[in-house]
Amino acid sequence: MSESMAEYIRKHAIKLEDTHAMDEIVNSIGNARYVMLGEASHGTSEFYTIRAELSKRLIQEKGFSFIAVEGDWPSCYRVNRYIKSYNSNPPELEVLLKQSFTRWPSWMWANKEMLELISWLKRYNDEQSTRNKVGFFGIDLYSLFESMEEIIRYLEENDPDRLQQAKKAFSCFQPFEKDEQEYAISAGYLSESCEDEVIKLLLEIQSKRETHEDDPEGGLSLELNALVAAHAEQYYRSMVKGDTLTWNIRDRHMAEAVEKLMAFHGPEAKVIIWEHNTHIGDARATDMAEEGMINVGQLIREAHESEEVYALGFGTHRGTVIAGNAWGDPYRKISVPPASDESWEAMFHAAGAYDQFILLKEHREKFEDVKGNRAIGVVYDPRYEHLGNYVPTRLSHRYDAFIFINHSHALHPL
């Protein structure tokens, strides 16, 4: 272990418990319009609470327009309607989260930490004019069948002239009985694709966006659901061809969804993006680039001036986390062992066994070495962590700042 690196971190990192710590981060964000807040797992309480605190300050002090998260559009749009009071008789928030986030891993958004943030967003919006209300949107693409159902529902209520066209397009998917895996097998191996149908429908919907008084963002939701349907079809059709292709389809979709939301909110719009480090940290600063993988962080940086984009990564040395043993398994609290000796997390721990952060823009040259950056997914087995839970990373090229939690704790699912 490099003693000089630990000493350097000890000298320049800022303890999170310092009263001015959050001020330093908010000030370093400056005039950025795209602020990407990462996480080293999808099941760590501190990542959610710190991102929530930063998001509140960015909304209050810098006028950010909406939060875009690694979640399904239909589920998150129900939350968006709740915090903007589009529903005349909304359900209790806890009930809404449980009902909206049923797709595994439901704990990512149906948890007590999100309950607090969404309650705050509702209270904040209640004091704002309609145009200044802050949004909450999902930018992921897994909701193929849910998005198609939302399109049908919307057209039934608002545009019956286009309803038959949509039903005709989606009839191609009926044999698969809302099973994405069945469609993936059929499209990938048997070439029984519904691509043409959903692309035609997407182009038609994009050509005509409508607004309605009781749901001023309904036309936006219709368009984003159509975008999800088109890209999800492509994603599932490509699953048999390998992880790199599907990864790139997904991250290109999420970046495009962000840009559509920014365009909808106008030239002064600002977005806070909540996603895993592997999505918001620039892929070019990791071994992902060698495998031909891109991500949201890279795409956003490539599309905008450097001062417009800010990426904040997270790491943890040890603790507990919520995850599953396998895809679809019930979640459980899992112990996270001490980080690998050759990781960035081990360096920060050696510098001081406390929560801290460093503004990497100011120390770029010192953090250019390649070391592992811990990455825990929704499936996690700590016994095999050394085989795939560290992303070789040039830290100062991947993020603009890095928050280190020495001992983290599991998220609290509802």
TrEMBL record:
One GO term (biological process): methylation
One Pfam family from the record: Erythro_esteras
MF terms (GO), sorted A to Z: methyltransferase activity
Keyword Transferase part of the UniProt annotation: yes
Keyword Transferase belongs to the record: yes
Matching PANTHER family: ESTERASE, PUTATIVE (AFU_ORTHOLOGUE AFUA_1G05850)-RELATED
Protein name, per record: Protein-L-isoaspartate O-methyltransferase
Native source species: Fictibacillus phosphorivorans
